[in-house]
């Protein structure tokens, strides 16, 4: 499944796609002080609630109008990927 993440100034929208078929969708509040681990744990809980796990995600795409927020995908101290160790495509407007 593809995890699509759209980070906006006030909300973060997450959605899953199995091929072209849309799956679960979630909306989170964008909080600048929230740590990557908090977003990771939230995503894991959302996936579990939908009967899924991080192993079900095979790809991810992230778009952001708030460029600094793409750091939510990496741990600030270690630089390791949070939640799923995938190469994430980051889409930004110029």
Set down the secondary structure blueprint.
Blueprint: E1 2-7, E2 11-18, E3 21-29, H1 36-49, E4 59-64, E5 88-92
Parallel strand pairs: 1-4, 4-5
Antiparallel strand pairs: 1-2, 2-3
Structure notes:
This protein has a single domain, classed as 2-Layer Sandwich (Nucleotidyltransferase, domain 5). The chain has 94 residues and is of the alpha/beta class. The relative contact order is 0.24. The protein is built from one helix and five strands. The longest helix has 14 residues. The radius of gyration is 12 Å and the shape is globular. The chain has a five-stranded mixed beta sheet, with no helix packed on it.
**Mean pLDDT figure:** 80
| Principal-axes shape call | globular
Q: Estimate the helix proportion, in percent.
A: 10-25%
Cα gyration radius (Å) = 12 Å
In what range is the share of β-strand residues? 35-45%
How are the strands ordered across the major sheet?
Answer: 3-2-1-4-5
Q: Write down the CATH class.
A: Alpha Beta
CATH topology (fold) name: Nucleotidyltransferase, domain 5
Tally of extended strands? Answer: 5
Q: What is the terminal-to-terminal distance?
A: 28 Å
Number of helices: 1
CATH homologous superfamily descriptor? ATPase, nucleotide binding domain
> How many strands, which pairing sense, and closed or not: the largest β-sheet?
5 strands, mixed
Quaternary state reads: single chain
CATH architecture: 2-Layer Sandwich
Order of secondary-structure elements: EEEHEE
């Amino acid at each position: 499944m593809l995890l699509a993440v759209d980070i906006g100034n006030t909300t973060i929208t997450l959605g899953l796609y199995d091929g072209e078929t849309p799956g679960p969708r979630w909306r989170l509040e964008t909080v600048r002080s929230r740590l990557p681990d908090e977003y990771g744990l939230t995503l894991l809980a959302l996936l579990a609630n939908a009967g899924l796990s991080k192993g079900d995600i095979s790809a991810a795409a992230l778009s952001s109008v708030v460029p600094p927020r793409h750091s939510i995908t990496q741990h600030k101290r270690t630089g390791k990927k949070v939640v799923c160790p995938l190469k994430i495509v980051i889409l930004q407007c110029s």
